[in-house]
Amino acid sequence: MTEPTLTRPSAADLYDAHVLKDYPRQPLTLVRGEGARVWDDAGRSYLDFTSGVAVSALGHCHPHWVAAIRRQAGELIHTSNLFRHPLQGELARRLVALAGPGRVFCCNSGAEANEGLIKLARLHGVKKAGGAEGKCFKVIAAKNAFHGRTFGAMSATPQEKIQHNFRPLVPGFAFGELNDLASFAALVDDTTAAILVEPIQGESGINVCTPDFLRGLRALCTKHNLLLLLDEVQTGAGRTGRFFAFEHHGVQPDAIALAKGLGGGFPIGAMWVRENAADLFTPGSHGSTFGGTPLGCAAALAVLDVLAKEKLLEKVSAQSGPWLAALQKLAADFPQKVVAARGLGYLTGVQLAGETAPMLAALRDRGLLAAGSGGNVVRLLPPLTASAEELAESVQIFRAALAL
Predict the structure, then answer these.
(1) Given CB 3.0 to 4.6 Å as the disulfide criterion, which of 54, 106, 126, 245 pairs with 199?
(2) Please, is 226 exposed, middle or buried when counting C-beta atoms within 10 Å of its C-beta (0-12, 13-18, 19+)?
(3) The dihedral of CA 93, 98, 99, 101: what is its sign?
């Protein structure tokens, strides 16, 4: 007697039936990755220039990273922050060495790291107001910013598509124009505690802060006793060719939010706080059950190892300039379709004259995965391990899609 054949539902069917419809997912089911490439369930390979939205800094399944995860999973996975473990202390030491004297708080995501920055601003405001709550709590952020989807981070994200249907939001945020120092200065008053910006607005079209703007914000914060808070969730961990994007401009922030590429694919975030503000957090003022677990810290330490051993920051710095120039040439060769290309390091956007969805589909059909940004920008986020040949291949694919 022949046994009946059992048909398993496809991933698409399972998503349609059981997963919340909170993402406009591309019609693709990915099952394997290696380096800068991924494969779908039909066996087709793609050059992955989404990198999990700037997460897979070492590409997929880097041998050193995989070995570190496997080793730690067999030793100790979780302890909670009621106890010490050696890897969190070592990760904090290495991040302090990269960012400057201060202290580190570990969490799980960029939104959590930004929530930490917002709480730090509130604590600074209380201290600035002589211990009084509710008198100095305003945070000035930038228009078109994106800091996350939790309530504090969402309140610092002045985009209708993010805030719609979730009001009332957390009070205390005001918004200036990016790269317009005067618009930020005009918002400073006795209720202001901090200024929060992304060195590059990744989700809003790859808008890069100018050196003069960031330096001006530093001077403004120093003058008025404000904290300068930098959201380096997408720009940090080497994506711009320096470990932190602010290093390009010689600016010293008071606190930094970091996540995405830090774990190389494992969820971990961190907040670095400069010495002058590190004592604002005291026992009970903040916490995270899963923040800085042994497994998460092992992943992050493996990323730092590879960045150093393979000289990836130097590689990104050397290769990103010619790559961006090749992308910018698309605007000259296809002026009716491409407005501009901009970015820094391996955080690059190609602004289109039309919508991004058809272009993303055309790129995907030709073997290149990219992400949208800011309505009409195609965002390209290669892993930091991407070769010059893979960068050139991405330009060739883009050129072929534009030639349609």
Answers:
(1) 245
(2) buried
(3) positive
Structure tokens at 285: 């003022």
How does strand 207-208 pair with strand 200-201? antiparallel
Which amino acid type is present at position 21?
K
Q: What is the pLDDT of residue 23?
A: 87
Buried b (16+ CB within 10 A) or exposed e, 122-133: bbbbbbbbeeee
Q: Which amino acid is it at 37?
A: R
Catalytic positions, written as ranges: 146, 231, 260
The predicted pLDDT at position 140 comes to 98
Query: What secondary structure letter does DSSP report for 178?
Result: T
Domain that holds residue 77: 66-309
For residue 351, what is the domain's CATH number?
A: 3.90.1150.10
| Average pLDDT for 93-101 | 98
Cα 34 to its chain centre, rounded Å, is 21
Give the Cα separation of 30 and 20 in Å (integer). Answer: 19
Question: Among the three residues 286, 309, 332, which one is the final residue of a domain in this structure?
Answer: 309
Per-residue burial over 22-49, b if 16 or more Cβ lie within 10 Å, else e, is eeeeeeeeeeebebbbbbeeeeeebbbb
Q: Under a CB-based contact definition with an 8 Å cutoff, are residues 134 and 170 in contact?
A: no
- CA–CA separation, 220 and 140 (whole Å): 12
What is the total count of domains within the chain?
A: 2
Q: How many CB atoms sit inside 10 A of residue 271's CB?
A: 28
Residue 392 CA to residue 394 CA, distance in Å, equals 5
What's the pTM? 0.95
pLDDT tens per residue across span 191-209: 999 999 999 999 999 999 9
